[in-house]
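Run: sequence + adenosine-5'-triphosphate -> complex structure.
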Amino acid sequence: MTIIDETAESPGPQETGRPLLEVRDLHVEFSTRDGVAKAVNGVNYSVAAGETLAVLGESGSGKSVTAQAIMGILDMPPGRIPKGEIFFRGQDMLKMSGEERRKIRGNRIAMIFQDALSSLNPVLSVGYQLGEMFRVHQGMSKKDAKAKSIELMDRVKIPAAAARVNDYPHQFSGGMRQRIMIAMALALEPDLIIADEPTTALDVTVQAQVMDLLAELQREYHMGLILITHDLGVVADVADKIAVMYAGRIVETAPVHELYKRPAHPYTKGLLDSIPRLDQKGQELYAIKGLPPNLTRIPSGCAFNPRCPQAQDVCRTDIPLLFPVTERDGGELVGRGSACHFWKETIHG
Ligand SMILES: Nc1ncnc2c1ncn2[C@@H]1O[C@H](COP(=O)(O)OP(=O)(O)OP(=O)(O)O)[C@@H](O)[C@H]1O
Ligand SMILES: [Mg+2]
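>> structure
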């Protein structure tokens, strides 16, 4: 598939080894009746081509708002970005013109949402909606666009794609609809896909299939992938690294398997203890007591302190930075960070 790369004439420093996407000290707030809700409070993360970052955290931790800021689809107002940078191939998207951002959003970064049924148009066939990507963005003829749509439906393993291309969204199962969403995201061969809870609405077994498919395509196309989830179990096998969010901050980052083996933040520990099991499908997280804070009144110090079994005085007064996490003997642990004053006690016991 040939795509005109509209961002090619402005080469970013990606060639010099910078990541595909780099979010730096991002802040997002919303004006609400209650006051200013500080939804994102200094998020830093990055994704390289061919890399999968899982962003994990309870409801309301700012996962989606961060993604919306990247995509440029925040409601503004009431939303506002008082501070931060979002580099895509080395260029700060927050400093681009609306037109430049639209080009990137349409062609280079794609997003997959949780709810395929409400993202697809119920009165248009799936083939028409897929084909629209090629007709609108690449000026393809109707006939070619339809052929492309069938090819894509095959790619995402929809059985009998040619026979089903004229079917409507409601004629597909939830899992198949989510595959169609993946196909739409892939259509223009983006550099980066942001998948926001792409499997949450699906059965556990179908979840795994869709996640495996996404991971397979990500490898094949060598895309960056940001996988947003509140379910650690779902991303364990597909992510390279994890960023755990709480009250709009990253509280822990780690390569995925290390995070599982040795969490360095009490919040991550709590999440790990509450991974849903097959026989407990649909239950809420229960291991961590209490609720996430009201974002108009985030507790002083560490936002997690009222719920933390390890909290001490300093946790109620000082906001912990993301400290580099090291081995007991000081040895380097690449890519590990914890925003806990007591990360040493947490990881080394
Ligand atoms: N348009 C908006 N106006 C006001 N507040 C908003 C708006 N959009 C998001 N928020 C608030 O920002 C906070 C973070 O929301 P966000 O959607 O990022 O959470 P999340 O981590 O994605 O949670 P979930 O797992 O439920 O999807 C929430 O408290 C939410 O109510
Ligand atoms: Mg969300």
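>> summary
Residues 48 and 210 are 22 Å apart (CA to CA). Confidence is low (pLDDT under 50) at residues 1-16.
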